[in-house]
Amino acid sequence: MSLHFEPNRTPAPASAGEGPAHSTWQVGELLRRGAPLFSASVVAVGVFDGVHLGHRRILSEARDLASQAGWTPVALTFDRHPSALLRPHAKPPILNTFEERMRLLIEAGAQHVVVLEFDAELAQFEAEAFLRRVVGAALGARGVVVGRDFRFGRGAAGDAALLERTAAALGWKLRLIEAVKDGGERISSTRVRRCIEQGEVEEAARLLGRAYALEGVVVEGDKLGRKLGYPTANIAPAPGLVLPKDGVYLAEVLIEGEPVRRGLAVVGTRPTVGGERRTVEAHVLDFSGELYGRRLRLEFLSRLRDVQRFDSLDALKAQIALDVEEARRRFAGGE
Predict the structure, then answer these.
(1) 267-290, pLDDT tens digit by residue?
(2) What pairing do the DSSP bridges indicate for beta strands 112-116 and 22-25?
(3) Which residues, listed in sequence order, are joined to residue 296 by a DSSP beta bridge?
(4) What residues form DSSP beta bridges with 147?
């Protein structure tokens, strides 16, 4: 149950003359600068949704290659998932907020993150022009690191073969990283997303290298939990994030300015009281303070049970008591 959340963490300071720890650009704006952002860099390219163990392998390789040559390790990514523009009807829910993705990329090995706005102009960029003009000329690439199956450029025409040809022509050091596998299956954002949607948060944590988490400001609810003797904090996660399958989960709760606490997280519609909207709420064990308006983070550790409809509030209260007892047992090492 180790934690990787530091509410007050800020990215590592940038080196003199190399710009901020992360910056966002339109592709045309970046190309019009007339000078590269970095004098010499190793660029890891990807969407990096989730920053899972496969992504971390890519970023680690970029950091190591850059360290050997005295260059700057840079992550090049996008402000949104490309599907949001190219296939809006089929865009997947995302695994991180933008801010969390920036933090995780820095922690995984990037000294700087360059974010491109994924707009119509960028979507029409030919793959080789993207490599030469953006990665090479604009970012000062001397090395490039990507997953071997990464596709890029207009129509996703760019592939490993094009990278190899371009790298050879420009004298780049190229690292094509094979997929990291777990249980014989490649680790991917799609696989992590599927695990979370199925409530398999322990497997998701193994693929991510950390517990899956949701974060948000505590908002007012109907105070039903307080009436039952088990007050809950309702959070409003950022829109578009994947939510775990409806259920009751063992969770670690991080509140700004507080020590790490333990509790239960509940995702669902609260069918006993006729709820229709999915909510995310937490009962924090042994906590009696006021949480409204404070930022709270839930790290999902394991799934206890489904959400179910009870015939009465007394029956619901009795089940919550059992849930709390089970949570205490597990946190004490009973499983």
Answers:
(1) 998 776 666 788 999 999 998 888
(2) parallel
(3) 216, 255
(4) 177
